[in-house]
Amino acid sequence: MTLIAGFAFGLCVGSFLNVVIHRLPLMMERDWRLQCAELMAQEPASNPQMTSPFNLMVPRSRCPHCEHSIGALENIPVLSYVLLRGRCSNCKTPISIRYPAIELLGGLLSVMILWHFGLNWQAGGALLLSFSLLALAAIDFDTQLLPDSITLPLLWGGLLFNLTATFVPLTEAVLGAVAGYLSLWSIYWLFKLVTGKEGMGYGDFKLLAALGAWLGWSLLPAIILLSSAVGAVVGVSMILIRGHDRQIPIPFGPYLAIAGWICLMWGNQLADLYSIGTGF
Question: What is the tens place of the pLDDT at every residue in 181-226?
Fold first, then answer.
């Protein structure tokens, strides 16, 4: 019953994450435009779209093609997509398969975490971290942005959970946050000095710092190695199979998120393998 309830909870959270993934970048863009208008002494009120309420709650979700408001019965996770056959009930425009996919991922993540950790505070923290990583990975994949409004609270949340050593002792968490940020920051500047180009964004530094705050400094090498390996495989595959332009940057956040979640679940085993492989 716990796993069933956890799956239902994860589906509902996944439905909310779809809203976050879609709206948060738009909210950031609106905020940037308002700030630019203010700096240029312009009146944002001249553009109703810039002043009308827009956040994670308002306005109601609607079809982007026909503006049909989505009712409660059309917003049941996964089930509504199946019953509507993947189309808007009003204009019959296809709905992206990613919406139910995110919902299902939310449900599966919940089940796996409850199965792995049990029903306790550690599972609660793992769920918070997992849902945040899911949202960040999807946003970065779409926009190459890792919003501070998620990464920074995630970093502080990791330190707060580890005040009582929920995952690692607080000392390891603080060192993990510092080392996570500085490691990618150093790589960024070294790459920029050598090539004159920016190899990654500051959001990646903050995400790795957040993972270090949750999982401790000792798992940072595993996270970096895993994310780099996955990113290299996916990047080369996109170039060879899909003809991806080498000049178009590939977001690193999704790979950090995947590697971080793997280390959340099986970090101790990976650390043991790393120790055996390096002789330390």
Answer: 999 999 889 988 988 888 788 999 999 999 999 999 999 999 999 9
Per-residue pLDDT at 50 exceeds 90? no
Q: Output the CA torsion sign for 2, 8, 11, 15.
A: negative
Predicted confidence band of residue 268 (pLDDT cuts 50, 70, 90): confident
Report pTM.
0.90
| Side chain identity at residue 258, one-letter code | I
Complete DSSP assignment for the chain: -HHHHHHHHHHHHHHHHHHHHHHHHHHHHHHHHHHHHHHTT--GGG-HHHHS--SSSSS--B-TTT-PBP-GGG-STTHHHHHTTTB-TTT-PBPPTHHHHHHHHHHHHHHHHHHHH-SSHHHHHHHHHHHHHHHHHHHHHHHS---HHHHHHHHHHHHHHGGGTSSS-HHHHHHHHHHHHHHHHHHHHHHHHHHSS--S-HHHHHHHHHHHHHH-GGGHHHHHHHHHHHHHHHHHHHHHHS---TTS---SHHHHHHHHHHHHHHHHHHHHHHHHHHT-
Structure confidence at residue 172 (pLDDT) = 96
Who contacts 245 (Cβ-Cβ below 8 Å, separation ≥6)?
none
